[in-house]
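From: lab user (bench 3)
To: helpdesk
Subject: output format question, protein + adenosine-5'-diphosphate

Hello, I'm new to running complex predictions and I'm not sure whether the block I got back is the full result or only part of it. Here's what I submitted:
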Amino acid sequence: MARDPRYDILFEPVRIGPVTARNRFYQVPHCNGMGWTQPQALAELRGVKAEGGWAVVSTEEVEIHPTGDCEPFHEGRLWSDADVPALALMAEAVHAHNSLAAVEIMHHGASSANWSSREMPLAPSHRPIIYYAPVQARRMDKSDIADFRRWHREAALRAKKADFDVIYVYASHDLSLPMHFLQARKNDRIDEYGGNFENRVRLLREVLEDTREAVGDRCAVALRFAVDEMIGADGITSDGEGRDVVERLAELPDLWDVNVSTWSNDSATSRFQKEGYQEDFTRWVKSVTTKPVVGVGRYTSPDRMVSLVKSGVLDFIGAARPSIADPFLPKKIEEGRFDEIRECIGCNMCVSSDYTNTNLRCTQNPTMGEEWRRGWHPERIAPKGSDHTVLVVGAGPAGLEAALAAGRRGYEVHLAEAGTELGGRVSREARLPGLSEWGRVRDWRVTQLSVMPNVHIYRDSPLTAEDVLAFGAGHVAIATGAEWRRDGVGRDHGAPIPGFDDPRVFTPDDLMNGKRPEGPVVVFDDDHYYMGGVLAELCRSWGLEVTLVTPANIPSAWTVNTLEQGHIAKRLARQGIAVVTSATVTSFGTDSVEILDYLPGTTRRLKAGGIVTVTARLPREGLYEELAAAPEKLEEAGISTLRRIGDVYAPSTIQAATYWGHRFARELDAEVVAAEDLPRELPQAAPLRRHWA
Ligand code: ADP
Ligand code: SF4
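Helpdesk reply: Thanks, we reran it on our side. This is the complete output you should expect:
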């Protein structure tokens, strides 16, 4: 389809210093958990973004020196010339699609412990590093500052050698040396690099000048800057020194990439911030500089993008997460395929890959991070390998994705759902406080399926084993999901908790089905992701007195990995929800629960009219087991594949459900590569050396 002229403005080329971006779609730097350990996988991933129409595709943070070594996190590296070929691979992949490759070179300063290199971290003044670790950064003397400038310059030259087009100076997310020098609270130097604003901005200005002088003939120099740290007067603010920085350095970089600090604010989840929330902090930047400005806001709406450009807020639509959820977002806008845009749901499973140092993954985009290892492309999939029909039982995220991917392969697909509503857990969870955007997992898939003539959807169709056998499908996917257990068994309790057979014990499913406990309510969270905290909020919204009890030492402990834990703890406190950590529920009876406080090792009773137990789930596996128990009947019915996918296979995240649904469809009638045989990037660059006799 031809481009709708309303969106022409998004496809105008924009000059960035000596280079030109072919349109206004800009993938800003984002972490991925792979970094220097998987250069081929990363090159493939970034190349797919360029293919999808992002005119600028950036790396993640790329360390310039071992004194700013971020291990155990896997970021990029340009410590020496030996690192050039790995990054050159990515630049080449991006250039293959006519896009510009950008590299975010940086020094972590007092934000890395240097666990791997064992060098001492560097800072403007003597300070502990910003993470809780028994590590202090040492105050840099003049020769350290000269060294840092030289390392940055050399890294810029290496980046140019690797054929990058845009080279960053990084002062954002509270994560880099120039940022730390700017921050008055961290810089108590009395020389020309500390004290007044002019002195604190000096290093940033010098590094910009150095970079321009080193590579500016051919490469654009971008400045990524957090205009507001969102900590009030203690930090940089967009109406204070944040604005002063932009005014002072306005024309020095070729491009301003502006955001807010820290990462948990910049990449806030949809539970806490909606599309475009950074605009309040950044919309003035363009009035201060003539250079192009890129900003982020989890933008997925083409109309919003047009209005941002037309109203002079941004020149480039920056994206990290929307480009992960849909690497082909720009192309889909260009081709008028708006319904096909797979919108990010703002869950930050992608961020958790960085926190767990594993391949980037995404709830919405099951191919993300598997482009190289499995050869999965977000838009292309092999045609079907047989004329078998496919029956998918259950239309949660796993079943919907399986049906969609199999349908795209050309199979005749039948999707049967017991309920009237499609979406399974996603539909129910999207009705919980703050999670409405999660419904996009369902909406996008249902929209795609609705126009596929080869996919047939049956609602209100709870299938039995006889139904499945009678159906006559060659491939069957059982995607019947899981249910929350009510007996209290989970991580903390291997056996049921006494009293949990009481009708006043509620599971998350009960609450999502509309049941309400009497107060006061104790939410026992032994799940540690979002559900316990969200249900505490829900009960509180009903006016009940709520106490959340968790064996972890912080509420919603795993959400540290999705950057939400601080936000959740704050919200619980501000809603008046009591939190008891390092404790477990040991019994429930009459009008109270007994809890064991692990630290003193003592028990006490909390008044409770009801318990919400959030511990673990059990697969709804009856249908699968009945079918699997009778292979002769499967054969007789012509069923060649019977597989469990999603939560019925093993209860997990929504991200795992879409991944397994997708994988089921990819593997139909195809050679299945065992996990141990998948390509791996082994450290084989140098010949193996021996130091022993
Ligand atoms: P997942 O996350 O693995 O996709 P969900 O729990 O979200 O799992 O979805 C499972 C879906 O399967 C639910 O919508 C449920 O109604 C449906 N379902 C369960 N058993 C059957 C069955 N026997 N026939 C059809 N649908 C079923
Ligand atoms: Fe968006 Fe979630 Fe995918 Fe990240 S994992 S890109 S937040 S949908």
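A quick orientation on your result: The longest strand covers residues 220-228. Let us know if anything else is unclear.
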